[in-house]
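Model it.
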Amino acid sequence: MAELSVATTPEFDFETEIDRRGTHSSKWDTLESGFGVPLEDGLAMWTADSDYRTAPCVIDAVRAQADHGVFGYFTDFGPYHSAIQWWMRERHGWEIDTDWILTSQGLGNAIALSVSLWSDPGDPVVIFTPVYHEFAIKIRKTGRVPLECPLRRDGDRYELDLEDAQSRLTGQEKLLIWCSPQNPSGRIWSAEELRAVAEFAARNDLILVSDEVHHDFIYPGQKFIPMDVAAPEHRDRTVTLTAASKTFNIAGMKTGNFIIPDPTLRSAMQGRLRSMDYTPNLLGLKMTTAAYSPAGAAWVDAQLAHLQGNIAAFDAAVNAIPGVHSLPLAATYLAWVDFSGTGMTYEEVDRRVRKEARIAPSPGPGFGPGGETFMRFNLATTRARVIEAGNRLQQAFADLQ
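Modeled.
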């Protein structure tokens, strides 16, 4: 089938409030059942899923396919692979070969496949905490055990403690799952730190799976470096996971990628995907191809400017509450807020946030050791909702003022 032409528009709107309640949104329609927050006026600020429409060029790609009217079997992944290659080169300075790309049903699926392929039931799988809670969940679902290596907090930054991590290893580990940029703290790792992690993996003969899904949310003055760029000498054990899902709010299309330079590792994952008779879906490929373009890049730049304003508004509000501190974000749209200075138990903080402020954030303890006094708030929404959240939190902790 010939490529469909896609029109674009320069109009970018991040401020129109879209009511997602009653649309089968996992973010919004689980407020009551999952968090005890009323659906009518609650604020969903947990899962990393933005509330505004995706880029016009992506919507136009879907419209073009719908106008075509046929959604049958398809072939030729060339445009999709070329779009990923262009995006990684232009946005991240990373030269990749299109042959390195394999596609998964989203990155949750990619993590689960990596764990099941490169480790055995009962094995410890190394993660550095606090970290994206789905790492531990996927590890447990596949019958493995999370081996949690705490990061060391130094003021507003998390630092590696590889000596401590080494002391925790048992020798049974085969896999390390790494998060870059770091979720939940928004930390960007330096090239030296990334090389140290890759060398740690090599010393312990670990496959290194680097989840880089938030790599497009990088703020001015910061620089993101892909693991493969920082440590190309360790390509024989490195698997990078990427997707347009967070960047363009298309996670529901369940389309993600393994980027695997090493032919042995790549062949192993190809075999696993083939055994499952897995192929990606048509609309996921079309949307990602449209997203990874100059028009998509312009929309991302506008989104970043919007998010900067949201972060500034939210941080000003919560940091005005005595004992509450939102760590500065270098990357992501996920505010990592420490309530330890209030002197309250986590249960009391949780009650005030969910019951009084009527906000559903991601609970910090779910991110593992180091998250016990934190909550994570998703700021990828309208400015009005962010300001409302800040006001509600101030009211919920008004007795501290």
